[in-house]
Amino acid sequence: MMEMTIDFPGGSRVDAHFGGFTVPTDQLPEASAPTPFAVFLASIGTCAGIYVLGFCRQRGLPVEGIRIVERIHSSPATGMAEEIELEIQVPPGFPERYHDALVKSAAQCKVKKTLENPPRFQVYTKVTG
Predict the structure, then answer these.
(1) Which residues, 6 or more positions from 73, have their beta carbon under 8 angstroms from its beta carbon?
(2) Which of 32, 58, 109, 129 is the most exposed place for a label (fewest CB within 10 A)?
(3) Closest of 44, 71, 61 to residue 102, by C-alpha
(4) For residue 59, what is the DSSP state?
(5) Residue 16: count of CB within 10 angstroms of its CB
(6) Cα separation, 87 vs 103, whole angstroms
(7) Cα 88-104-55 angle, rounded to 5 deg
(8) 89 and 99 in contact (C-beta within 8 Å)?
(9) What would the pLDDT profile of 8-52 be if each residue is shown by its tens digit?
(10) Helices (H), ranges, 6-121
(11) How far apart are CA 40 and CA 81, in angstroms?
């Protein structure tokens, strides 16, 4: 089990603490950090990136010039994400025989797989201290 502590350091900031790390979030208009939703969306692209990086490292392929462009297509009515596109851009010299394999490796992303098979949520209060 992983545990995170979420706290409220001031203003509209809401931070998550886990494993010695702090992930700061904020809301507009004074935003001093990304919004929680932006961090969530970034986790999709960066997770895919970890898998692409691992694929390249395992094969001794250079990662210079590779990048992932994530595009979020949202519903005009609800503002909710309806489609997320991950475009893996490779430099001209990157071996074409690995293009499909890069896509397959990015598709193994744990964040993407969790969205495809969402967890159950339990939200409750507890009096402490």
Answers:
(1) 81, 82, 83, 84, 85
(2) 129
(3) 61
(4) H
(5) 15
(6) 9
(7) 75
(8) no
(9) 999 999 999 999 999 999 998 889 999 999 999 999 999 999 999
(10) 36-59, 99-106, 110-116
(11) 12
Amino acid identity, position 66: I
Q: Are 27 and 35 within 8 A, CB to CB? A: yes
Structure-token pair, residue 116: 């495809």
pLDDT in tens, 77-104: 999 999 999 999 999 999 999 999 999 9
Q: Which amino acid is at 17?
A: H
The two three-digit tokens of residue 66, written as one number: 């590779």
How many Å apart are CA 2 and CA 6, to the nearest integer? 13
Task: Look at the pTM and tell me if it is higher than 0.85.
Answer: yes
Q: Encoding tokens for residue 81?
A: 């994400």
Percent of the chain with pLDDT over 70: 100
pLDDT at 28: 86
